[in-house]
Amino acid sequence: MTQVHLREGLEELPSYRQGKPAPARDIPTYKLSSNENPYPPLPSVVRRVSEAASTMHLYPDMSGRALVTRLAERYDVDADCIVLGSGSVEIASQLMRATAGAGDEVLFAWRSFEAYPTLAIAAGATPVMVPLTDSLTHDFDEMLAHITPRTRVVLICNPNNPTGTVVDADAMERFIAATPDNVLVVIDEAYQEFNRAEKSPVGIEVFRRHDNVMVAHTFSKAYGLAGMRIGYAVAPPAVADALRKVAIPFGVTSLAQEAALASLDAIDELAERVDKLVSERDRIQDALKAQGWAICDSQANFVWLPTAAYTDDVARVLDDFGIVGRVFSGEGIRISIGLPEANDVVIAACAAAYPATTPHPLSRTTAQG
Questions:
Q1: Contact present, 146 and 129 (Cβ < 8 Å)
Q2: Are 31 and 324 in contact (CB under 8 A)?
Q3: 20: pLDDT strictly greater than 70
């Protein structure tokens, strides 16, 4: 056993679990555990990346000048407000390292994005997790009650991962107005492109109204660049500068930057794909509600089955059909939206799973929310 001294508290640090891959089976299997875009990269994006590959022996532009300029123009903000990272999760990691340390607190709803508590603990801070409401939405009253002089950051995942629920714009505005000005409110919009809720806030508009608000976006989901690892923040200049100071040097590759630029050039084509995924999401939700499932309307590229104590039983039925979802034992199962043929199997699998789990609180007639 190694005698090397390791930092105290690492034993409490949960490892992030990557979405389970689809195993080799004698039936078709579908990996719907990572919220990946099921469509292959656009040809125009592949060409741009292929052309950029000839310069892979050189370091990337650490400032990402071309992409930062493009994003600043898109949102009509100063370029000093844009910070790049290797996915929105790295943006969140930069945020923790720049704002929180030993004795500080990072507040967020729970359940929400799995990486939040890990990143907070890794930074030496204490994660404060406030349970979602019965309808699986952020409980802003409770979150406000948990803000203390030690609170440095509040994370709002909208749409929320893994439930797909969204916050109400007016409710969030009241929450931010009541939050101390020295607490940074971060709106994580990794799934915003799939959001069709009329009363849900738009992060960039909230950012314009408040000096203590930051917005995090990613190219992984709607843009289909999960393998390239690139995201960005729109933040107040002082916060953005702090994020850049703690960022990994050259952390965003040249290929990722070129892929992002090409994707912005192809925004109309990508929007068509997003619309198809939204249509498929709604088709699945309508089918599951007709089967009797008590599901909340998701505004992301996944659906959430609130299976509670029956989670492992339902997961086994899904597995029998070749469906690999994200299983949270004792809580629920998140199933990403795939191509239509995969979604057909999801509907069939859920129809088979539901009778096996009744009677219990999954029934639409008895479940809260």
A1: no
A2: yes
A3: no
Q: What's the pTM value of the predicted model, to 2 decimals?
A: 0.92
In whole angstroms, how far apart are CA 178 and each of 85, 170, 248?
30, 12, 34
* Contact (Cβ atoms closer than 8 angstroms) between residue 285 and residue 291: no
Going by C-beta distance under 8 Å and a sequence separation of 6 or more, which residues neighbour residue 253?
60, 228, 229
pLDDT tens readout for residues 57-86: 999 999 999 999 999 999 999 999 999 999
> Partners of 262 in the beta sheet?
none
Query: What does the alpha-carbon distance between residue 340 and residue 338 come to, in Å, rounded to a whole number?
Result: 6
Pairing of β 184-188 and β 151-157: parallel
How much is the pLDDT for 361?
43
Checking if the pLDDT of 96 tops 60, the result is yes
Residue 260's nearest CA partner among 114, 60, 68, 81 is 68
Neighbours of 145 (CB within 10 A): 10
Kindly tell me the burial class for residue 41, based on how many C-beta atoms sit within 10 Å of its own C-beta (0-12, 13-18, 19 or more). buried
